[in-house]
Amino acid sequence: MMSLVIVSGSQRPHSESARVAEYITRAAVMFEHTRHIELCQMDLPFWDGSQQSRANHPHWNEISDALNNADAIALVTPEWGGMASPLMKNFLLMCEQHTLAHKPLFLSAVVSGVSGTYPIAELKMNALKNLKSVVVPDHLIVRNVNDLLHHSEQVSERDQSLRTRIDYYLHMLKHYTDAMVPLRERISREPHPQQQQFIYGM
């Protein structure tokens, strides 16, 4: 059973990011199991670099188990001041290094205006260095999000185009997921003899 975990990173409840994440969750019918984790509902501590930040948190084991069992991950972040949300970046700092390693990662940015490029660039550039996730080539930017992806029988041409694009992206994500399961299994069976010396990315 292939599992997809979608993580939305807005710090506001009832956010547009969470709504887009819920749409992706419903659309990902090619995965046997999907789960949306809305970070603002989890009350995560501010990461201070210590294991206690994880160990003492009531929800972290639940989140960690979901990520460990996931075969693919999708991140949905709002754009705040041209950046990914602080909550999303804090979440990525809290992730154990093995949790997301060698798993396909699909990035999405949500913005009420017409920007949205910078959070994707930021996450690709520096937020994932040590987690060793494999970011898939396609990413999603939902601009003017207030007007899109609502429950409605009547949708605009632009809205339908976005929905079709999401379907394509999820289809491709499933192919990457299928291809990378045996890769992770092989890495686990045949680790490099000095693997622990190279746990950090460059």
Automatic annotation (TrEMBL):
Listed GO MF terms: FMN binding; oxidoreductase activity
Keyword set includes Flavoprotein: yes
Coiled coil ranges: none
Keywords: Flavoprotein, FMN
Pfam families from the UniProt entry: FMN_red (PF03358)
Protein name in the entry: NAD(P)H-dependent oxidoreductase
Residues of the NADPH-dependent FMN reductase-like domain: 2-145
Keyword Mitochondrion: no
Organism: Echinimonas agarilytica
GO cellular component, as recorded: cytosol
Highest taxon of the lineage: Bacteria
